[in-house]
Fold this protein.
Amino acid sequence: MSKPRSRRPPSSSLEKCPSGIRGFDQITAGGLPRGRPSLVCGGPGTGKTLFGIEFLVRGAINYGEPGVLISFEERPSDLAANSASLGFKLDRLVARKKLVLEQILVERAAIVETGEYNLDGLFIRLAAAIDSVGAKRVLLDTIEVLFGALANAGILRAELHRLFAWLKDRGITTVVTGERGDGSLTRQGLEEYVSDCVIVLDQRVVDQIATRRIRVVKYRGSLHGTNEYPFLIDSLGFLVLPITAIALDYPAANEFMSTGVAKLDAMLGGKGYFRGSTLMVSGAAGTGKTSMAAQFLDAACRRSERCLYFSFEESPLQLSRNMRSIGLDLQKWVKRGLLQFCAARPATFGLEVHISMMMKMADDFRPRVVVLDPVSSFESAGTKLDALAMLMRLIDRFKSQQISVMLTSLTGTGELAEQRSEGISSLIDGWILLRNLEHRGERTRALYVLKARGIKHSNQVRELVITDHGLDLEQIHVGPEGILVGSARHAQQLLDNVAAKTSRDDLKHHRDLLMRKRTALKARIAELEGDFAAEAHDIGQAIEHEIAHQDVLRANRTTLVAQREDLKPAQTSTQRGA
């Protein structure tokens, strides 16, 4: 038996050993306590062994920490075969001296409880395995096999303390698996007290749908998430889906993107909505939610952006056929590799399987736009709280990747339309509400923007029209009897058009009459001006003649006066001669 090493001095902060398990290190703020034992317990089929194996594999591959797996039940070959389905090649790690697989059989019939019972033999084999690869991680699966035939609680506690202390002294980060007991976390009810970290795995069936949950019950010296978190086991191993561990630190883009409906873009400030945001379209059945989502995708594909469409009620071919009736050919985008469909009933899997599938598809396809149609159907696969938690994780994930998301949600009518979706209203950035309006025995659709963060949006109610060429919006018409929609709006518009035409004709008639009068007035003015000019000319000539006549008279008078003056001296000489 190897001599125990001296204990390391306590550190001011607990050092963490990253597990490499997706999501788990988030809820434990870094992983498992380094150099300490952690207990993973749960019922059969919950994934205890796979948790421990992934801890070893990720350590060997990602962190350069070799590991040792000691199994007290399954053979190494069986463990290797079972792990291969998750992509873990244990045999290759063993060949590269990164992993040791050993089986220690403990026959219960051979165990006789005498005065002395200890684990010295286990210590020897463990020490040899650890030293052979320089292991930093150890998995003991499952621990209660060692003590299954012992009833003395004192011996159990003492040997467990000694085992865990021995592992601590060597600085080994250990995962110990244990079966769930009656009224306690483990069968013996002792392991959870001597472990530094206790993790409980659970599998439950609600409404015939199985879901898995993980909870960190105990973590000495460290803060950790204490809630239950859903997890699943997929082709890549464990995936823990935390909620509270997600930080609200994703970027906020200033770029706008079109919704595919020009008049709706105008209602949203004229440019559409912010890229990377989440837009929800809710309404009762038949209001046009799926059509609006398809128009949104079609516009994105026209911009050569990759799109993912998650349908939970209709098949891809049915959706494509239906959208052709409004002028949208979605299949051409599928053929060009810009659009990918994923259709599945919500009740087919648990919510954690759906979210894992959607995240994986998003990681593989790398879309710029995602549509979930409709998210309200997820309540059939779990509780309303579970569905809300799932949407929270999805939205945060997509926002962190700057993926624009449109959600559709089936609601009731009237005020219930807003109340039913109010649970997720805080998660979304924009909310477009569709309604059915009934008037004179006819149903029409109405649309208004209930919410648009960061955008000065319209508060008007518009009529939504589904045409052969896509969606369009019309102004709500107000007539003598109030708000008119549908055929009543068309009829009133015809009357308004006739009245407007009559008004235009009357206006034109008055304008023409005024024009004629103006022309006649101008002609009369011209005539008068002509008469005035002629008379002015005649009068001018008369004045000129009179002036000339006066000039002649003055000239004659002057001549006469001069002649008289010339005659006076001649008369005087004659008189003198006489």
Observations:
- The first helix runs from residue 24 to 27.
